[in-house]
Amino acid sequence: MSTQEKVLEELDISELISGQSEIILYNDDVNTFDHVIDTLIEVCDHTNEQAEQCAMLVHYTGKCTVKTGEYEKLKPMCSKLLDRGLSAEIM
Question: Which residues are listed as membrane-spanning (predicted)?
Answer without folding.
Answer: none
